[in-house]
Amino acid sequence: MVELTKPTDDSREILHAVAQAFVAIYGPHYRFMKAGVMLIDLIDANRQQLSLLDTAQTAADRERGERLMATLDELNRQMGRGTVKLGMPTPNAAWHLRCANRSPRWTTRWEDLPRITVR
Q1: DSSP annotation of 77
Q2: Which parts of the chain have pLDDT scores under 70?
C-alpha cells in the first residue's frame, strides 16, 4: 500500500505512487500480467485539509497541475476518450485485457445494443 502525502486528483502523482508500489512488490522471477489500483479514503476537493507546510511554490505547482489535468480532460472530452494519455502502452502487449469471453455490455455501451431490422 502506498499512501499519498496529500489528497490529489493529479494523474501524474497517482501514476508515480503506482510505480512506487510496483517497485516494492516486483520480484525478478515473477511474471506480472495485470494489476489494479484501489483508491480509498476519497474526499471532496472542497473539504480537504490543507497543510501548514504549504508554500507559495507548492501552491503554484498545484495550480499548474490542476490546469494541466483540466486541459487533458477537456481534450479527451472534445476529441474522444483516450485521445491524450500519460505514457503510451505497447499496442500488442501480452498484458492487454483479454476480451474474447466478455459478455455484451448492453447497459453501458450503445454499440453493444442488439440491432433489430424489419423486413
Answers
A1: H
A2: 33-34, 56, 88-91, 93-100
Which DSSP state fits 102? Answer: P
C-alpha–C-alpha distance, residues 76 and 79, integer Å: 5
CA distances, 105 to each of 6, 46, 66, 96, 117 (Å): 36, 34, 33, 19, 20
Cα dihedral across residues 102, 86, 61, 18: positive or negative = positive
Residue type, 60: A
Q: Cell 476519497, residue?
A: 42
Please give the Cα distance from 33 to 17 (Å, whole number): 19
To the nearest whole percent, how much of the chain has pLDDT over 90?
7
Q: What is the separation of C-alpha 109 from the centre of its chain, rounded to a whole number of angstroms? A: 20
| 89: its cell numbers | 502502452
Burial of 21 (0-12, 13-18, 19+ CB in 10 A): middle
